Amino acid sequence: MAAEVRQRLTVLSGPSGVGKSTVVAHMRKVHPEVWLSVSATTRKPRPGERHGVQYYFVTDEEFDRLIADGELLEWAEFAGNRYGTPRAEVLKRLESGEPVLLEIDLQGARQVKESMEGSQLVFLAPPSWDELVRRLTGRGTESPEVIERRLAAAKVELAAESEFDTTLVNTSVEDVARELLALMTVSTGE
Ligand code: ADP
Ligand code: 5GP
User: Fold this and answer.
1) Is 126 in the pocket of ligand 2 (CB under 6 A)?
2) Could you give the 3-state DSSP secondary structure of residue 88?
3) Which atom from ligand 2 is nearest to the alpha carbon of 13?
4) What architecture (CATH level 2) is domain 10-187?
5) What is the 75 CA–ligand 2 centroid distance (Å)?
6) At the N or C end, where does the chain have fewer CB atoms within 10 A?
7) Which residue from 16, 18, 22, 179 has its CB within 8 A of the most atoms of ligand 1, so it is best to mutate?
8) Euclidean distance between CA atoms 87 and 90, whole angstroms
9) What are the strands, taking DSSP E only, across the chain?
10) pLDDT tens for residues 2-19?
11) 88 phi and psi, to 5 degrees?
12) What is the residue with the minimal CA distance to atom 19 of ligand 2?
């Protein structure tokens, strides 16, 4: 594949609770021209989530088959469930010149960096550690034990920031979405 096609692949990653889903939901609404990859997952749908919109919800057997048939661009286990990016649709969109955004975890970001030359890795960082704690706690969906586990994981994820090409600080969702769009559409002159 030509370099000028692959450079449009952008990966957004960052610690749990930083606001990745919020940024992606905003992008979906305000910048529908950016194509957001829909991942496959073995996790059960949360209320309001629909098959084919937030995720393709698949069984363990189906996920095994996707791996075996090489249909995933990358995949990882996260908090007891498996998540992966379907390869074919991403390649099709890139070939047609559309900007493509993947919102995936750190392990997935590392795989994309290895396998997709020219991809752009964007790290979403919290304004401060205290604010990350506030956001994770403020969601109100997790027990204190789970929050502690996620915060421990967040420390590891924050330490990986230097592996990324760019950091965006999520102070304002609107600002991050604007900056992300600018990064995705900038020409490298190749
Ligand atoms: P992630 O997908 O990274 O785990 P979420 O998108 O679920 O994170 O966001 C975690 C919490 O932080 C949510 O309650 C969300 O409303 C809040 N949040 C996200 N972005 C911001 C922001 N820029 N300012 C304040 N709160 C935010
Ligand atoms: P959640 O269960 O909260 O929707 O997602 C949990 C984690 O899985 C998040 O960090 C999210 O970025 C990550 N994730 C979602 N889809 C994929 C994927 O296709 N591949 C990888 N590696 N991670 C993913």
Assistant:
1) no
2) helix
3) 12
4) 3-Layer(aba) Sandwich (3.40)
5) 9
6) C
7) 22
8) 5
9) 9-13, 35-36, 39-41, 55-57, 72-78, 81-86, 100-103, 120-125, 166-169
10) 444 334 799 999 998 899
11) -60, -45
12) 84
Q: What is the pLDDT of residues 69-123, one digit of tens each?
A: 999 999 999 878 999 999 999 999 999 888 899 999 999 999 999 999 889 999 9
- How much distance in Å is there from the Cα of 105 to the middle of ligand 1? 16
Break the chain into its structural domains and give their ranges: 10-187
Q: How long a stretch of residues is the chain?
A: 190
Model confidence at 150, pLDDT cuts 50, 70, 90, reads confident
Start-to-end CA distance of the chain, whole Å, equals 14
Residue type, 63: F
Q: What tokens appear for 103 in the block?
A: 């919102």
Supply the mean pLDDT for the chain. Answer: 90
Report yes or no: 19 and 3 within 8 Å, Cβ to Cβ.
no
Q: Answer whether 78 contacts ligand 2 (Cβ < 6 A).
A: yes
Q: Which atom of ligand 1 is nearest to the CA of 176?
A: 23
List the residue whose alpha carbon is closest to atom 11 of ligand 1.
135
pLDDT score of 62: 98
- Nearest 5°: phi and psi at 138? -65, -25
Percentage of the chain lying above the pLDDT 70 cut:
93
